[in-house]
Amino acid sequence: MTNWLPDLTHGTGPLYLRLADRIEKDIEAGVLAAGAKLPPQRNLAFDINVTVGTVSRAYALARERGLVAGEVGRGTYVLQHDEASPGTAAPLPPFLAGTRGPAPVPGKLRMDSTAAPEVGQTETIARLTGEIARQHPEESLDYVRAPERDWLKAGSRWLAGDGWTPDEDTVVPTLGGHAAILAVIAAMTVPGDKVVFEQLTFSSVARSANLIGRRPMAIDTDTDGADPEDFERICAQQHPKIAFLMPCLQNPTLTALPEARRRDIVAIARKYNVWLIEDGVYTALLENQPVPIAALAPERTFYIGSLSKAVAAGIRGGWAACPPHFAPRVQTAYKMLTGGKPFLLAELAARLVLSGEADDIRSRVRAEIAARETMAREAFAGLDFSSHPSAPFLWMKLPEPWLSGTFKNAAANEGVLIDDEDEFKCGRTDRTFHRARIAFSAPASRDGVAKGFAKLRALLDSGIAGYDSFG
Fold first, then answer.
1. In this protein, which residues make up the domain named HTH gntR-type (predicted)?
2. What is the pLDDT of residues 265-296, one digit of tens each?
């Protein structure tokens, strides 16, 4: 470990920012060499007479700048910054890469995507897009300065459920649910803050949070979803600022958080002053939607929804319903992170919802997903898996002796792309589930779905001995 004692008496601004700047300057000056281990946060905090939180935020900001890398239990190390050869792309750092490649392998059957299936919605989308271009030629070519009122009204209507309807003034239109979630995290936290995720989750958001300097941490889950007791333990010991939850059709486990647990989590969040993000993107597929957390704790819950699973992913129609008075803050963060939302897409999403076309498409999507889920139950009869008639994927328990990553590779060799369990982990964990997610909404036809299921069933039945990993 490097014997490094930075001097923060000079300079202006918050102490954590001065410390991060000092790390950067000392790396540039060679005081901190590549591979050097920074002092443990608690030790450095004591040595320079600041709080551990100050050091934690500084280290997180240094990591965000690409200066250091750290892992729980190993410490924080200075990264090597050699110049890359011309034309040579630097590899993605592990916290960004995930388990998928940067682009899908061509020629493979996509059973790793849960976008809404094609049910004839392209004709409606084409007609509405043409109308918008004709009626709003100037707006379609310009930047969006402020959201139109109809965009807020559409968001309020799409997000509503079980007696709860968000006020239009709390709604922020976004380019899909992912951008909405990241905007909320950016608006409500600062670098170094901790963000709670379920141990298996929409890990792309966890990696995105890491990218902007926030620190993901996992809470335990069981067959009923997030464990309130572990959530309270994390809140008491780690002091997170915000928690991200998927209470309905949880991706990838398909658990549903019972109302009693929702109320327990709300009580804990209030006790420890933790913000909540409720991902309702898959909830839109349910005919009967349970009481949202946002209805139980409107003062601290950000409810996220989009058209991606129920209408069309390519429209990038998304909304965030915010606690009172926080929409302008999230809107500003969203514009700073993404540059804003194009008029054409925002207007298209709004017209789909307000005209009722989105509901008609959703009905057809639900029917198609239900039909494909029935095919899945028939194709994988006798195996251990979780599925739901409204969900465009299943969560397969792999029979002995399959490992999750090995099965994913074997499926890819057979021309089928699926996701192993590691794709959904928000960070390193010793827990193994021996599961894989098989999605079935992306193939263009049910014949394609059937072929994919047949190949996967054959692999599962043949066992790992039938898989040659050498060629």
1. 13-81
2. 999 999 999 999 999 999 999 999 999 999 99
Q: Are 182 and 377 in contact (CB under 8 A)?
A: no
Best CA proximity match to 38, nearest among 77, 95, 5: 77
Q: Output the DSSP codes for 193-214.
A: -EEEEESBS-HHHHHHHHHTT-
Can you tell me whether residue 342 is helix, strand or coil? coil
Cα 179 from Cα 187, distance rounded (Å):
12
Query: pLDDT tens digits for 71-97?
Result: 656 788 898 865 434 444 445 555 555
- In DSSP terms, 78 is beta-bridged to 68
**H helix or E strand, kind and range, residue 437:** strand 435-439
Distance CA 133, CA 348 (A): 10
Is the bond into 401 cis (omega within 30 degrees of 0)? yes
DSSP E strand stretches across 255-345 = 275-279, 301-306, 317-321
Answer yes or no: are the C-beta atoms of 359 and 225 closer than 8 Å. Answer: no
CA atoms of 422 and 428, how far apart (whole Å): 9
How far apart, in whole angstroms, are the C-alpha atoms of residue 88 and residue 251? 35
Domains identified in the chain and CATH numbers: 15-78 (1.10.10.10), 97-118+359-466 (3.90.1150.10), 121-357 (3.40.640.10)
Average pLDDT, the chain: 91
Cα–Cα distance measured from residue 100 to residue 395, given in angstroms and rounded to the nearest whole number: 18
Half-sphere exposure of 462 (CA within 13 A, CB side): 14
In angstroms, the CA 414 to CA 290 distance is 39
Amino acid at 301: T
Strand pairing partners for 277?
A: 244, 302
* CA–CA separation, 363 and 379 (whole Å): 24
